[in-house]
Amino acid sequence: MRPSAVLSSLPAPAARRLAVRATPDAIRRLKAGHPWLFEGSIRSVSHEGSPGDLAVVFDDDRQFVAIGLWDPDSPIRLKVLHQGKPAPIDEAWMRARIEAAVARRHPIAMPPPDTPPTTAYRVVHGENDGLPGLVVDRYAHVAVVKLYSAAWVAHLPVVVPILREVVSVSSIVLRLARSIPPHHLHGLEEGQSLVGPEISAPVSFLEHGLRFEADVVAGQKTGHFLDQRDNRIEVGRRARGARVLDVFSCTGGFGVHAAAGGARSVLSVDANPQAIAMAERHMSLNMDRPDVAACRHETVTGDAFGALERLAAARRRFDIVVVDPPSFAPNAASVPRALSAYERLAQLSAPLVEIGGLLVSASCSSRVTLPDFVRAVHAGAAKAGFELDEERRTEHPIDHPIGFAEGAYLKAVWSRPRKSSGAFPPFDPLR
């Protein structure tokens, strides 16, 4: 379990800290706990800094406001680690912050005796755990560190040994956001092991007792979408005897949980052939369960919108329909288009739900607010002649905490469509 030799060759952060002056509005936001300082909010910097250098923000009275990691190539110029009174950002500070994040996940890592085990979960959720730009996911004996900022490169020699000890894994794999300039990586490579042997095969893990695999080296994100775990488990609890449609099924998480919960059939729809292949693989990994073996699993590889239209034309109906698309809003300008897409999906999916059945509509777009998303889902269903009787709204699981407004991205509406009676008052998403 020796750390990779490349860690010892990484440049250390500069001993001299940058002094930063910011606009009054930015100072107010930082004092309120916001973890970002944007380039446009900076009035002056004492000197040029490298990624990962520590920078201190002072107010006009030269009083300490915050300290964070400098990222000269990012619009978010400073990733804030600490606000309030001055504190040393050293190994002890990093250890305390990581240990606090691990402690929050204790209910997952150590569930009650009668709860099926889960061995994959998020250990560090970036800004929301006070470590902006750093994500750590655990898959059984492997931890995956994903950097969303070059500012963390210089701190890996401190962070990785702490993770190895506190998270207790045999391998730590590095994943890198595409936005990080290659010249700031100093020999680091996507998918390499920073601790332990190189990973050459998918990593097996359990989710509520069910078997899955994650491609931690080249798969999307860190290898699996962990944030929908609670919703997948809930669908499984409701699936006994149901015909289930899983749209944007990705690697089949919702479908496997539904099958294990006793679903009569599952239809997985995704445009990615590799994702569909993994959905079939995940179903096969759980064939020792009688309910999974008895479930008929169909797949459709293709555009979800077109698939929904064809299912409607074929008069297919389902007892549970799950619509969990990728983010439709990568930037603020794309929000109107995203809302139109959510509305269209609801318009296409509501008629496919059997009378009394369940529609689960999800969004992972942080720039789309919950009220706007809910409004779009109801508006789309209304266009198809349906009202939605909401049962619940779900958001983030315990291992994906929300620490600031922009950290809230996941949302799902659970509803039962029914034919519209004609005239009804405008929907209030906040009721």
Could you describe the 3D structure shown?
The chain is of the alpha/beta class. It has 3 domains: 18-83, Archaeosine Trna-guanine Transglycosylase, Chain: A, domain 4 (Roll); 91-204, Transcription Regulator spoIIAA (2-Layer Sandwich), CATH 3.30.750.80; 227-419, Vaccinia Virus protein VP39 (Rossmann fold, 3-Layer(aba) Sandwich). It contains 12 helices and 20 strands. It has helices at 5-8, 24-31, 91-104, 106-109, 156-168, 229-237, 253-260, 273-285, 290-294, 304-313, 335-349, 370-383, and strands spanning 18-22, 36-38, 42-45, 54-58, 64-70, 76-83, 120-125, 134-139, 142-147, 171-176, 193-195, 203-207, 210-214, 243-247, 265-270, 296-301, 318-323, 353-363, 386-394, 411-419. Strands 16-15-14-17-18-20-19 form a 7-stranded mixed sheet, sandwiched between helices. Helix 11 (335-349) packs across helix 12. The longest helix is centred in the last third of the chain and has 15 residues, at 335-349. It is globular. The relative contact order is 0.09.
